[in-house]
Amino acid sequence: MDILLIAGLWLDGSAWDDVVPALEARGHRPVPITLPSQGAATLDDQVAAVLAAVDAASGNPMVVGHSAACTLAWLAADARPERVAKVVCIGGFPAADGQPYADFFELKDGVMPFPGWGPFEGPDSADLDDEARRAFAAAAIPVPGGVTKGVVRLADERRFDVPVLLVCPEFTPAQAEEWMAAGDVPELAKAGRLDLVDLDSGHWPMITKPAVLAGLLADAAPES
């Protein structure tokens, strides 16, 4: 099965370099997506890149979003509910209609640079060693304000019929269920087929637990 891989903020397709071989070994075709992230790139540009990958896939792909990019995976299900076989959200939740995509940190010169490790101290980054932190920060790509402040637009209720797997790294499935029950995650709360799986890692399991993550994704892939 084609498995489209979308990394979160500040990352490009190379974030999945250690996941790809393990998925290929299980007979899947992983497709890491590098999103438009230069200059005046917008959220619409990133959505278009994801949809182009969906349209180019062989058969109906599984779309994997990490962190903020869970929203991009969900937008793909909204725009192509008949084409997306499954959505996997890793360490994040889809934004609701009308919300900004990722307006989390201050913009500088029109972009949102990686803010350093301060905001991520604790469970998010506990399993990243110093070398991994340095490499992440050095490679981090500032995210254009046209992306971070872009408004999410969801229109097709058939997205709720697309099966969803929520991978819970730095939080537990029980916590995720509490957040959904409290109304904090309205999109997933309405999903008709939602599974949750625990993953003992920080927020970036493609870096710290790539083989384990690949196994979860391979097991989650529907029969093609």
Task: Compile the SSE list and pairings.
Blueprint: E1 2-6, H1 20-25, E2 29-33, H2 43-56, E3 62-66, H3 70-79, E4 86-90, E5 111-112, H4 130-139, E6 143-144, H5 145-148, E7 164-168, H6 173-181, H7 186-189, E8 194-198, H8 205-208, H9 210-220
Parallel strand pairs: 1-2, 1-3, 3-4, 4-7, 7-8
Antiparallel strand pairs: 5-6
Give your account of this protein's structure:
- With 224 residues, the chain is of the alpha/beta class.
- It has one domain (2-220): Rossmann fold (3-Layer(aba) Sandwich).
- The chain has nine helices and eight strands.
- Helix 1 links the parallel strand 1 (2-6) and strand 2 (29-33).
- It is globular, with a radius of gyration of 16 Å.
- The N and C termini lie close together (6 Å).
CATH class: Alpha Beta
Number of helices: 9
pLDDT under 50 segments (min length 5)? none
Helix content: 25-40%
Annotated CATH architecture: 3-Layer(aba) Sandwich
The SSE string, one letter per element, is EHEHEHEEHEHEHHEHH
- Structural category is alpha/beta
End-to-end Cα distance: 6 Å
Remind me, CATH topology? Rossmann fold
Described by the principal axes of the CA atoms, the overall outline is globular
Could you state the CATH homologous superfamily?
A: Alpha/Beta hydrolase fold, catalytic domain
Q: Characterize the main sheet.
A: 6 strands, parallel
Strand content: 15-25%
Strand adjacency order, main sheet: 2-1-3-4-7-8
Q: Kindly state the number of beta strands.
A: 8
Domain AB hydrolase-1: 3-214
Keywords: Hydrolase
Pfam families: Abhydrolase_6
GO molecular function: hydrolase activity
